[in-house]
Amino acid sequence: MSDLGRIDGRTKLFGLIATPIGHSLAPAMHNLAFQRMGFNCAYIAFEVGNDELEDVVTGMRALNLKGFNVSMPNKTKIQPLLDEISPAARFIGAVNTVVNENGKLIGHNTDGIGYIGTLTERGVDFVDKKMTLMGAGGAAKAVAIQAALDGVAEISIFNRDVSKATKIADVINKQTNCNVNVYKLDDLDSLKSEITNSDILTNATGVGMKPLEEQSLIPDTSWLRPELVVSDLIYNPRKTELLEQAESVGCKAINGLGMMLWGGSKSFEIWTGKKMPVEYVKKHLF
Ligand code: NAP
Description:
By secondary structure, the chain is α/β, with parallel strands linked by helices. Helices cover 39% and strands 20% of the residues. The chain has a 6-stranded mixed beta sheet. A 6-stranded parallel beta sheet has the order 9-8-7-10-11-12, with helices on both faces. Strand 11 (229-232), helix 8 (241-249) and strand 12 form a beta-alpha-beta unit. The protein is globular, with a radius of gyration of 19 Å. The protein starts with 11 loop residues before the first strand and ends with a helix. NADP nicotinamide-adenine-dinucleotide phosphate binds next to helix 4, helix 5 and helix 9.
């Protein structure tokens, strides 16, 4: 999809450091956008885990890469290797975008912005609403914090490891007007009643993607109702079991593609100072 034939001696290099990485749509998305904008830039995915991270960041500085994305498992571990962290990324405690400003590496986080972007695009009214959020990993934290900052009134977080959910709740309850409560994921009575009282249900766990494809944390579609917006951060597969359940009941069902697109679009803007041609990218990528 990318036009690598245009690479020359002046091409500016961008990248993604993560593992596993083969499934990522980020290279196709950014190369399409660079090409459309006529920028002499290229974006490459690098298979990088925590063990190689420090050497890789040193190498990126030496090669003067203009920017890169960071994904699992490097989003928190990269922070001490950078020169500056944006207030939002510091608040979230994770970095997914790095920009090289005259040799200074500055970390940002666009995951939560991507999530809110996809809700906005799909016409979901989230201000003063209640969300039930399943998961308390890096993506869940970014989603919860951005949702709280952007006006969601109440969030109920369910996770296997409840201590992770409690840490997110403490940050949000202290620093925003949003009210967060936490529950263990296997407390099914609470999960059912919190979903019943929510406007939005969001899955931010790996349940629904490989190796847990065809699984859903919702045991019965009777827990869902047509007015509930159901979103899943997973985009591979495009329609998880949870989204199948949601559609069968008549809910608005939103997969993770939009979050990736709008989060990526914010990264593109941080790197280039220009808006990503989102409609063009959508047309050619999705
Ligand atoms: P992470 O930090 O590793 O967190 C994983 C989360 O999934 C944790 O809450 C974990 O619970 C939970 N989990 C894993 N296996 C589970 C199971 N069998 N049953 C119940 N819960 C389980 O990963 P992440 O970066 O937050 O990613 C989470 C999901 O979001 C992934 O599916 C990822 O693909 C997706 N994502 C999408 C985008 C996008 O742009 N669309 C961006 C980032 C992430 P414990 O804490 O109890 O282990």
